[in-house]
Every structure is written in C-alpha cells, then in structure tokens.
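## Example record

The block below lists the input lines for one assembly entry, exactly as stored, with component labels intact.
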Amino acid sequence: MNRYFRAEIRSNRPVHINHNLLSLANIDPMVEPQPGQFYMLEVSKGLDPLLKRAFSLFRRTQEGFQILYRIKGKGTSILKDLKKGTVLHVLGPLGNFYPLPSDSESPLVIAGGIGIASVFSLVEKLSKKAFVFYGARAEQELFMTDALESFHRELVLCTDDGSCGVKGTVVDVLTDFIKKRDEFHQPVIYACGPKAMLREIAKTALANGVKAYVSLEEHMACGIGACLGCVVKTTSGHQRVCKEGPVFDAREIVW
Amino acid sequence: MNLEVNIGKLRLKNPVMTASGTFGYGEEFAEFIDLSRLGAVVVKGLSINAKEGNPPPRLVETASGMLNAIGLQNIGIERFIKEKLPFLKTYDTSVIVNFFGDSVEEYETAAAMLSSQEGIHGLEMNISCPNKQAGWCIFGTDPKVTFEVVSAVRKRTALPLIVKLSPNVTDISVMARAAVEAGADALSLINTITGMAIDIKTRRPRLGNVTGGLSGPAIKPVALRMVYEVYKAVKVPVIGMGGIMSADDAVEFMLAGASGIAVGTANFVNPLASIEILDGIIDYMEKQGIEAISSLTGTAHAG
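Predicted structure tokens for the full assembly:
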C-alpha cells in the first residue's frame, strides 16, 4: 500500500466564481480511490499553514485524480495559486466510502453547494442509475451541471431563489419525490452538503423509512485517525470523520 | 556510530520517540513507517476507564501551530491491553504508555494495571494536560501535589517512570525537582501551552472547550528554553519535545539537555516525520563526525 505519495499539478483552473478544479498526476504509485473518500493535500512547504488540507475525491482520472474546491480560507487561497508542474505530497485515499446500492435499490444522490465534489464520482460510478438532486442558493452557485449530464438518470436542480430549476431546497424536492414516485420500492439516499441540509435530509429519510448515507466534514490534523480532532457525536459515542467516516448512516449521527 | 540513549534504566536504540497523543496507539502509522526503527512508541494517554473527551470542534490551526482540545479521549487501559498492545509487541521497539487519572488513587491503580503487563517498557505519567476540567491541573502546577501523586505512583510501579511536565507554570524547574524528589526516573517536556482562538464573525471561541493546547513549531523556542532550564535543575534524563519538525530541531533539543526527543505535531503534517528526523540525525552525526549521539546531550551549556 502506498497512501503517501507525490503528485504533480497538471492543471489548476477556475471553473466558477471562487471554485477551482485541480488535476493531479501521481508520480508514485497510488491506491485506487472509491467515491466518498478524501485526500490530505500539502498546500505549502513552509510551516504556515502547517497542516495538510482535506479534500474529497472529485474524479479519478487516467493520470491521477481531480479535486474540486471552493476558495474559502488560508489553505485554499494558497492552493489556487499553485502552478502546473508543482509537486505536492498527498495522503490518501482516506476514510470509508459510499456503500453502493443493491440492484433492487434506487440511489438518490443529493448535493448541496460544494458537496457536489464528494458525490460526483458516485454518480459517475452508478452510470445512469442515480437520481441526482443538486441545490444551491442561486443559479450562479450551481455548476458542473454539464459534466453531470452524461452520468445521471434524472437531474433535479433547485435554488433557494428560484433562479434555476425548482424554487426551494433539495430537502423539499426530495420529500415530494419520495412520496410521489411509487417506482422507488427501495430508495437509498447519498448526500453531501452543509450540515443543516444533511440534518434535514436525515429527518426526512427517517420519517419516510428510507436509508440515508451522509458525508460529513470536520477540521482534522492528520487524516489517519491519530489526532482525534475530527470527531462527531454518534449513537455509539464520538466517531472520527477521517476513519469511521466521512460517510455515516444518517441514523447514527446525533444531530 | 552509536545511537543508543539511556532514559534512566530504559535503554533505547535511538533517541527518537513519538509524543503521546500524536501517534495514536502506533497502528495508525504502521502502514507508513517501520515502527521497529523508532527508539520508542509513546501511545495516547490512557485512563482506567474509556473517556469520550471534549465536544467538537476540537481543533484549530494557528500560525505555525495548532490548538487542540481533545480532552484525553481514549479506549481505556483494559481495551488497550487486549486490542492494541499485542500489535505493538510484534515490533522491536520500546513501548511507553502514557497514562493519567482523575485522583491520586486512579493514578495508582492505572500504574499498577499497566505495570503487570509484559510488553510495556516504561510509563509516562501525564500530570499536565491543559484540556482537563478545572482543578485537575493542580497535579502539574502545584509542586506539593506533584510530589504527592508521583510518590504514590512510584510505590506502585517498578517500570521506568517518566513524568510529563506542563509549561503552564511560573518556574518549570521547581516542578521538575518535585517530580524527581518523588522518584521520577526521567522527565518529558513540554506538554502543550494553553491558548485560544476566537471566530470574529460569530464572536465566539473557536474550540468547543474554549481553550486548548498549542503545539507545533510555534512553541519550539519556549520548549527549548524549558529543556535547558530543567537540564540544569535536575540530574535525571530529560526527553525534549515541543514543535520538533526536523532533525535540526531535534539536535537543538539534545544540545539544550535532552537525552531523547519526541516528535509530535509533525506526525500529523507528515506520517513519515519521525523516521525522516531519525535519518536526519544520523546524517548530522556523519557530517559532524559524532560517534555517540548521547555525547551531544547538554553541550550547549557553557563550561
């Protein structure tokens, strides 16, 4: 196994306002990632910022893998300026992954905002089986929709202000969808997005007797289960997002 | 070339150890490095019963460092012995178990439980975690209480006993002397420095526990100064730690008076850090023509 390896930046370009797509090519052999897993990337060779940054696997590529990230803090502000040819140390793939649906289950994949980065490769892997619900505050915050086009079975876009797709949250749409469509004998939900959204999805899933998996995010130092910094409260005590997660059964989370 | 160092009666194959709380129970790092190359593995602090630790958020990165408020979450001594120790025993390294209690009695019981186990080569007594509830810190900040708790533990273990000191005191050499008079075979320092961070948007502390322990390169000069002071104050070996990121840092600690060094936060930044630091020390010895690493200890002290 080689989960600590070097990768070279092949491209690092804006795909949207404040969002970049980073393409990396591994220099050393890498372990095959699964949808839902994440990487810790070195954004600086210096001591400040000190820690690696955690990013979801966006897509596996021929030459390596891609990360889709929102420019938000100190780490991502440095990352966005890294040029083609830069070599980074990478730790990963880390954590667990989305458990794939059985043949009788219908996958409902839900993304809120940058949460799309975590579920994209799942939609890709489920090749045309996934019903995708993708929500954001406004049209300009929905992107990568063209890239999704060839993989989903159905795509429902929603915005809080109604500027694109359905007006409302993914949770509203999801609730209607589960109730209306009787073809879903066994829907199973996969979701990544803001915590408030995930909490609502968990509630909806529970109320309708639907299985739901959510991918959570917490600050972490090591990514390999040592620092205990990234725990979340679950029905069986504190669990590490980096090791027992990031994907949890929504029923196990103490929201 | 001789890399061996003595920490009291504990002989280590080299001076590089892992700092408690930054290396899990060792297994987390086994896929990245050969644990047998380390002088010692120091595991996450254990208590008699498992602890849930503090509520999240538990971690904030700060300039060249990080604050943590984990709150000593651990699986408890029994589970450690059953589930983690057998794995560590398969490696040719010394296993040092960090432990703590909420009372003198708990410290005694924990020390006795650990001392009856084969495969544990030393104990590190944590009297200095900054993330425990108010009142607990007295074990590491009041020299009378330090003397009392270390004396009690000393009577319950024949294993080499290392006492880990807090930097959150006015004069660390007073604490060092109290621990040594009570029977400590060695001292390790420093634990993290109490600090905090505030979110200016929410206007609330960033950590669930409000305050946390600062670690990483930001604290290295403070740690180095304290190792220098404690080396002068006591005769027992000192294990130096606090922001060691490179072999150069490690050598500095040895020059200040450390017999062994521990790599902490650097393990989070790079899982290979401890071994890279060991290799760097070997390289330094070759370049400087140093025969025995132990000859470096304390040589920064004049005269």
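Residues 42 and 134 of chain A are 30 Å apart (CA to CA). The longest helix of chain A spans residues 195-207.
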